[in-house]
Amino acid sequence: MFLSGCTSLRTTPLPGAPGQTPAIRLGDDVRVQTKTGQTSNFKVTAVEPDALAGTGVRIKYDDMAGLQVRQLDALKTTLLVVGVVAVAVVGAGMASGFGGPILPAGTFAGLTL
Hints:
It is a single chain. The protein is built from 1 helix and 8 strands, in the order E-E-E-E-E-E-H-E-E. By secondary structure, it is an alpha+beta fold. The chain has a domain at 2-72. Strands 1-6-2-3-4-5 form a 6-stranded antiparallel β-sheet. Strands 7-8 form a two-stranded antiparallel sheet. The longest helix has 22 residues, at 74-95. It is rod-shaped. The model has no long low-confidence stretch (mean pLDDT 78).
């Protein structure tokens, strides 16, 4: 997707005690690294007392080595918008000929001087 470059991954602390859950919400896009070295990316469909779940995946907190949540990066988004606007302005200027057609020497607005 076009705005996927405008996101970044933020490391989120794993729960420190049984029954605690990480600061993750339903619908968050997460990346989980397990203690066995596997990485899973998924949208959270359930935050359970002992695990995070997504479509077709459920990973216990005890099996996690790392947890990251994808979030919008304001700086990247701003730079992208500024870049798109700049390209549009330059493109519009080029399409309009930067003020009109180039007339032969000795003419003004189509009139021969």
